[in-house]
Amino acid sequence: MARRKKVYEGKAKILFEGPEPGTLIQYFKDDSAADNVAPISTATEGKGVLNNRLSEFFMSGLNAIGVPTHFMRRLNMREQLVRMAEIIPLEIVVRNFAAGDLSRRLGIPEGTPLPRPIVEYYYKDDKLGTPLVSEEHIIAFNWANQQDLDDMVALALRVNDFLSGVMLGVGVRLMDFRLEVGRIWEGDYMRLIVADEISPESMRLWDLRLPERADGSVDDPGPLADVHTELARRLGVLPSNVTHTTKPSLIN
Question: Does the predicted TM-score (pTM) go above 0.70?
């Protein structure tokens, strides 16, 4: 890695120049990404390997159904080749059930189904704590225009449909998740694509496969334990030589 030119380093990933123009190599670290309130500085051995495998699984699935992403291919256990994109400075959060900050702000009990998926925007600035912003803020400060916003909502809801179905198929409820969107140019034409990563770092997941008690009853669903390893196991992408325990990352 020392001989390659580093383009960017965040809490959970490092970006290096790619082998061809317009490409980057994305390296997954073991450190945790930030949530929407405060950074998490913990690191767990092997988590970057699992995030690489899981992000590959989700991004490849989205590409296969026509949802454009920056993912090109996985290179090794920790790296993948991605398209270079101009990242819009927003985290887009899609909520299917009340949890975290939404429950605290509005007084809705955690786990309450929402009448429809709710899309929120957070301005990407760690020093400010990634604050919640409105469409008016986004347009006024020229982070994106109205057409971009319409396209981002459509993109986020398509990702939500895909992820919700995949998760339900392995006994997991997708409570909410966040994604980032980037701009790419193909000649004079610009389009938006899903960028960064899609992994347990950016999701709140509740386990629907709960053990029965002797009387046949079960507990209410709760956060999926050991989220990286368990989700990779259920989806069939768990490397045989990677084991660890970590708590799920929550969207606030």
Answer: yes
